[in-house]
Amino acid sequence: MKLKETALVYLDRSGGLQKFLDDCKLYNDSKQSCAVFRFLILINPSDIVELDAVLGNYVMHEPVKATRIFKSVCFTAVQTLSLIQQLQTEDQINIVLKLTHLPSLPSYVLSLCKFPFDYTTQRFYILEGIVVAMTTVTKYTQGARFVCSDDACQLSEGFQYIRVHTPGATESATLRNDFVCSLCTSPLREDMKYRVLGDKQVAELIDSKATTAFQGFSTSKIQRFQSFTVFLRDELANKMKIGNKYKVIGIPVCMQNSSQVALCLEANRVDCPTITGPCCISEKFKYLISLTSNSYWKFTAVLANTFASQVVPAGIYNHLKLAILLSLVQTTDRDDATGYVDLLVMTNDSLILERLC
Ligand SMILES: [Zn+2]
Questions:
Q1: How far is residue 7's CA from residue 69's CA, in Å, rounded to a whole number?
Q2: Rounded to the nearest whole angstrom, what is the distance from the C-alpha of residue 65 to the centroid of ligand 1?
Q3: Is the pLDDT of residue 336 over 80?
Q4: What is the percent of the chain where pLDDT is above 70?
Q5: Structural contact between residues 173 and 166, judged by C-beta atoms closer than 8 angstroms
Q6: Which of 225, 229, 256, 299 is the most exposed place for a label (fewest CB within 10 A)?
Q7: CA of 180 to the centre of ligand 1 (A)
Q8: Which are the contacts of 319, defined by CB distance < 8 A and separation ≥ 6?
Q9: Where in the chain is the domain with CATH 3.30.1640.10?
Q10: Residue range 106-136+199-271 in CATH 2.40.50.100
Q11: Is pLDDT above 60 for 68?
Q12: pTM for the complete prediction?
């Protein structure tokens, strides 16, 4: 009970309560009949730990338990203030706790290079990596309503059997045909018109240390790099771009797929890490520009010639390296990237030109 009071105090202080009330109003005003009401609650781990260490600990280390506490608080609020007329049971509330950050401590970092993973405790971790592959956005079942198939049973109507997606669950955990009524053991059937679909996207991330493997340095330590699957759902779909580096907060999930066991991460938050590259042009580069300033093309040619010389000896694959350099110049993290590189190409080989475009 005390934890629920603290959760309410946190919601009130953080502005989450007002947002919740606004969301309730939207649902109540909506003409659409819903079986599941989804609410996002933004949680700042530092603030909540300061308010109550036990609740803070639950949020970061036992999110399922913490979600249950917030769900109960929200249900009580909806009932006492009669915020949503349609809502009948607590199961109809789907609470998703969204973290603002995690403490930057080693125990919260999930390193893709380190084995074994601790995936038995379903708690939040930070993972950093580069996106190497991505699927298109597809649909998944966010929530569904089931009723007892026996018309004589009192649970053949109402909203007692609501199933919502929980982090790490597969589609079959939400939707299956072998659920039975707890009152009369008749099979449950889904009321299809209440099915709620959400967006889902799967991304493959690789540790940024893996890029050192392509730099041609032979290290005595043998390293193994394997990509890691990250699930992006609902508001996180389309948040990532191939080739970019991201910091993901999420819950590791062990997926049993026939004979294989795969470890994945269910994302809760996606951020672009602050870029720590050089903020100015180095003296050596300035010197090179001054040396080659007598020609428009020399600087680019020298750069293409020596680019990636640790991997490819200077002077080889110049066309390819020039294309990579141009692509690097154009690659930016901004979404409103409208800058283009103008090129003047003089050649009688149209194939190279086509490849550049
Ligand atoms: Zn029944």
A1: 7
A2: 28
A3: no
A4: 86
A5: yes
A6: 256
A7: 8
A8: 352, 355
A9: 1-100
A10: no
A11: yes
A12: 0.74
